[in-house]
Amino acid sequence: MNINTNFLKIQNNYLFSDIAKKVAAYAAEHPQADIIRLGIGDVTRPLPAAVLEAMHKAVDEQGSPETFRGYPSEWGYNFLKTAINQNDFAPRGVALSDDEIFISDGAKSDCGNIVDLFGTDNVVAVCDPVYPVYVDTNVMSGRAGDFRDGKWSNVYYMPCTEENGFCPALPTRRVDMIYLCFPNNPTGMTISGRELQKWVDYANENGSVILFDAAYERFIVDGDVPHSIFELPGAKTCAIEFRSFSKTAGFTGTRCAYTIIPHDLKVNGTELNAMWARRQATKFNGVSYITQRGAEAVFSEEGKKQVDVNIEYYRKNARVIYDGLKNLGYRVYGGVNSPYIWLKTPDGLSSWEFFDLLLNKVQVVGTPGSGFGPAGEGYFRLTAFGDAERTVEAIKRIASI
Ligand code: MLT
User: Fold this and answer.
1) Residue-level pLDDT, tens digit, the chain, 401 residues
2) Which of 59, 74, 218, 298 has a Cα at 20 to 30 A from 327?
């Protein structure tokens, strides 16, 4: 009997579990401490009223034999796919068929599960710093090589630094699977259409696949930032896009997301769309009817307005954090097209030293940049998803250090 020994290679727990443990230990030792959590990017605004109403109605339907529904489609109900298509893609000039849209329980699951479609000898390219799921899932599936000096030997790291404006340079060697996330987690920075086009061209020329994580798309305000990679010519033959209702409409606890795999995307003549459809049909039983009706309501007129209000709430928090830290003399990035603020730690502190300082001295929790990769060392991430008053209070506390 053997286990998948790739799991033994993963050195640490999942980043956000580590942080949660540290904070729990601190809270246990200091039961009176009033901790402000700006670490994991978890939303705090409740679900929009339109979503609740749709879900209540769906619950009632499930209680009556005439309207009861059993297993959902493993790929999602057509009513939701059509709403997504008509609202997220058609208005941006992106023509998709509904069967190029797959509904799921989360962009994290999809980003993690997508590796099933790819050979283990592919070279994976990631930004550094990076959302840890992209790397860890490739480690688990045996594609990352060995961990040496803080890096995986078969992973191509693309540093995103102050010098390059946190926008990665094209690889100088051939890579197969390219993970891009814009607006970026963790740096909160974005990419222009002109820059992203270079990646699409690179991928098409090299037969690479771009795994484009657009979970934070709803935060984009700048006109030259693409909302979908499929706005760019040529993207349909080289890209998969991940989207989510989590950060858009407060679904972190409700769970609903969608992944776009165009029929035109083929590797060695095989459609990845068909492979994913087969994978999902085998390993996934779909998202509940109630949840999908709730997600559909995000696109209703009322739903859109209510989502806008929530996004604006978080944008204000982002400005409070960004401006507050800047006024305190910190070097601050992101926070404009994104709910994440990325800051340089002061006085040469390491990311974890700054984490400990904030937790112990002012009881504010953030995410150490080094947890996102070697180039994240010396940086720190704060999220704008908190309560507005508590966010103001957090900045006041940081000012007092
Ligand atoms: C984060 O804090 O980076 C996100 O909440 C993680 C996630 O979306 O899974």
Assistant:
1) 999 999 999 876 788 888 999 999 999 999 999 999 999 999 999 999 999 999 999 999 999 999 999 999 999 999 999 999 999 999 999 999 999 999 999 999 999 999 999 999 999 999 999 999 999 999 999 999 999 988 999 999 999 999 999 999 999 999 999 999 999 999 999 999 999 999 999 999 999 999 999 999 999 999 999 999 999 999 999 999 999 999 999 999 999 999 999 999 999 999 999 999 999 999 999 999 999 999 999 999 999 999 999 999 999 999 999 999 999 999 999 999 999 999 999 999 999 999 999 999 999 999 999 999 999 999 999 999 999 999 999 999 999 99
2) 218
Ligand 1 centroid to 249 CA: how many Å? Answer: 15
Residues with CB under 6 A from ligand 1: 40-42, 108, 131, 185
Q: Whose alpha carbon is nearest atom 4 of ligand 1? A: 41
Residue located nearest, by CA, to atom 1 of ligand 1: 41
CA angle 350, 353, 357 (to 5 degrees): 140
C-alpha distances out from residue 293 to 39, 80, 100, 217, 257, Å: 30, 7, 19, 21, 13
Nearest CA to ligand 1 atom 5: 41
Please give the distance, rounded to the nearest whole angstrom, from the Cα atom of residue 39 to the centre of ligand 1. 9
Residue nearest atom 6 in ligand 1 by C-alpha distance: 41
Residue with tokens 């950060």: 247
DSSP for 252-319, written as a single string: TTT--EEEE--TT-EETTEEHHHHHHHHHHHH-----HHHHHHHHHTTSHHHHHHHHHHHHHHHHHHH
Indicate the top mutation candidate among 18, 19, 40 to test ligand 1's pocket, ranked by most ligand atoms within 8 A of CB: 40
pTM for this prediction: 0.97
The phi and psi torsions of 265 (rounded to 5 degrees) equal -80, 110
